[in-house]
Design goal:
heterodimer; A: about 260 residues; five-stranded mixed sheet; four-stranded antiparallel sheet; globular; B: about 70 residues; 4 helices
């Protein structure tokens, strides 16, 4: 810490997310190809992260993992006083990585091929999921296992194109929610029912009826991907989502309006 | 049975079928949540069994999957 250069904490970070606000930072793994840059990313990792990195057998996955870890580390350093290499993580109660020692921020990471996304909140639990449009058909094919009866019966009236989009939206919302809970996919996804319309997105959970009043959600379209965010805030509030594009250790800029839009 | 399960995982994860039986599905074999559900569907269809949802999280590797399916088939 304290040395000059791009590893230093950013003096011009965005400031901690306000209550009800989620910051999304995305990186494109394919854009990070310079061997020198990748060596610097590797140097950011703690030994256990480097071990995991070495175990990937598919080169593309190893690369995506590396860029995603560099993204998390550099993003944290844009909010908190610490160099990207300084952050340490430990598994939370259900295995989700948390900062060690705890910090007044929550983060969650999702990556899906072309995009790695890190969501940051000012302390409320947060979850994010990203899926490419190209996966919508596959996800619609899983509807019987994933969607609630109410969600499923609403699909035919939408028409083929819209049904694909709705399936993608519902899947990413469910994933973002269970990731915010930090409990993996052992939650029966069919027991969760999201209402997606013009107003705030609503959740009804068969197994935990109070949950719907504890969470708010938003969906964003980003470079041919759908991104859903779950934030532990009272229902009826639409989280304010701010988005940055990041090339870890090189630059971060607010996302261009052409790259990101709200689909609703 | 292990070979059947291995082939299903390899096909859906789009990886060569000679992966290690203790390789992490999520981190080493490209198996995210969508693919995990696809694998479950394919296994249920191929072996005519039902995999209970509350047991999905037990499966981190091919070894785990073989044990789970064996316990269901018994």
């Amino acid at each position: 810490m304290g040395r000059a250069g791009p590893d230093r904490p950013s003096p011009t970070g965005p400031g901690a997310p306000a209550p009800g606000e989620v910051h999304l930072w995305y990186a494109m793994p394919a854009a990070a190809s310079d061997p020198g840059l990748l060596a610097r990313y590797l140097a950011l990792l703690q030994p256990e992260e480097r071990d995991r990195h070495g175990k990937f057998t598919v080169e593309r996955l190893r690369h995506e993992h590396l860029v995603a870890r560099a993204l998390v580390r550099t993003v944290l350093s844009s909010y908190l006083p610490g160099a990207p290499a300084a952050w340490r993580f430990r598994p939370g109660p259900h295995g989700r990585p948390e900062l060690d020692p705890p910090q007044p921020l929550r983060f969650n990471l999702s990556h899906s091929g072309d995009l790695a996304i890190c969501a940051v909140s000012g302390g409320a639990e947060v979850g994010v999921d990203v899926e490419p449009y190209a996966r919508a058909e596959k996800i619609l094919g899983l509807a019987g296992r994933v969607l609630s009866d109410r969600e499923r019966t609403a699909l035919p009236a939408l028409g083929p194109e819209q049904a694909l989009g709705r399936a993608l939206t519902l899947w990413t919302l469910k994933e973002a929610y269970v990731k915010a809970l930090g409990i993996g996919i052992s939650v029966p996804l069919r027991s969760l029912s999201f209402s997606v319309g013009d107003g705030p997105i609503g959740l009804e959970s068969e197994l935990a009826p109070d949950e719907g009043s504890r969470w708010c959600f938003e969906v964003v379209d980003l470079l041919s991907h759908r991104v859903a965010v779950a934030l532990a805030q009272p229902r009826g509030v639409l989280p304010k989502v701010r988005i940055w594009e990041s090339a870890p250790l090189l630059r971060s800029v607010p996302a261009s309006p052409a790259a990101a839009r709200l689909p609703r | 049975m292990e070979q059947t399960l291995r082939n299903i995982v390899a096909k859906i994860a789009e990886v060569p079928p000679d992966f290690a039986a203790d390789a992490s599905f999520r981190e080493q074999l490209n198996v995210d949540s969508v693919r995990a559900l696809e694998i479950v569907f394919e296994i249920e269809k191929t072996l005519a069994i039902t995999v209970p949802e509350d047991r999905y999280d037990q499966v981190k590797t091919l070894n785990d999957l073989v044990s789970l399916v064996a316990s269901i088939k018994r």
